[in-house]
Amino acid sequence: MSDEPAPPSDAPGPRRARRPEARKLDPERSCRLLLEAAMEEFAAKGFAGARVQDIADRAGLNKQLIAYHFGGKEGLWNELSRLWVHQEETFNQPDTPLEEVLVRHLHQALDDPRGSRLNAWAGLTGAGPEVEREDLSDMERRKEAGEIGEDLDPGAVLLLLMGAVALPVVTPHTVRSVLGMDPRSSEFREFYTEQLRRIVRRLG
C-alpha cells in the first residue's frame, strides 16, 4: 500500500478508456446495429415473440433509440422489408433469365437463412404488419416472353418457386429425408441448384 498522499479531489485524474458501449455512436451505425439485431430476433422468435428490449440488448444500445430511429418494433420490421425489396431488385433484372433469378434467391437463402425463417414465423403465427399484395407484373412479362407456359398461372408458379427456395432452410429435415443430403453442404447446394435450373427451363 503506497504512502503517497491522494491527489486533491479537484485534481485531474488519469484518463480512463471509455467502455465500448459508452462510446457515442453515429446515427447510421446505430441504425445498422439495430437492424442487424432485429433480424436476429425476428428470425429466432418471430415478430410477436421478439421484444424491443432484447433487440436493444443484442445491439448494445438503449431501447429508446428504436423508437427514435424507427418508431418502434413495426418500423424495424418495415425497414427490413424495404431493404429486402431493394436487394431483390438487384437479383431480378429485366434481362436476367428466370432460372438465374431463382438461383440467386436460393443462394441468398442458403447463405443467410434468417429471411426465410422470419417469413416462416410470420406465416405460422399470423403475427406481423400487413403485407401488400405481391406484384406479378414481372412474372406476367416472363409468361409473355415464353419463360412460363401458356397453361400456367404466373402467381402459382411464383408460389412454387418461393417454396422451392424456402424449403431447405425452413424444413431441412425434409431434404435429409428425401435426398439423404445435408442442406448445408456444398454437395446439396450444387445438386439442388442444377435441378432447379432444369425445372425452371421445363416451365416454358
Task: Walk me through the structure.
Mean pLDDT is 85; it is low at 1-23. The longest helix is centred in the first third of the chain and has 23 residues, at 27-49. The chain folds into two domains: 23-80, Orthogonal Bundle (Arc Repressor Mutant, subunit A), CATH 1.10.10.60; 92-129 and 136-204, Tetracycline Repressor, domain 2, CATH 1.10.357. By secondary structure, it is an all-alpha fold. The protein starts with 26 loop residues before the first helix and ends with a helix. It has helices spanning 27-49, 52-59, 64-70, 73-91, 98-111, 114-125, 137-144, 154-170, 172-179, 186-203. The protein has ten helices and no strands. Residues 1-25 are annotated as: Disordered. It comes from Streptomyces smyrnaeus. Residues 1-11 have a biased composition (Pro residues).
Summarize the structure.
Keywords: DNA-binding, Transcription, Transcription regulation. This protein has 204 residues and is an all-alpha fold.
Keywords:
HTH-type_TetR-like_transc_reg, Arc Repressor Mutant, subunit A, HTH_TetR, mainly alpha, transcription regulation, 204 residues, transcription, DNA-binding
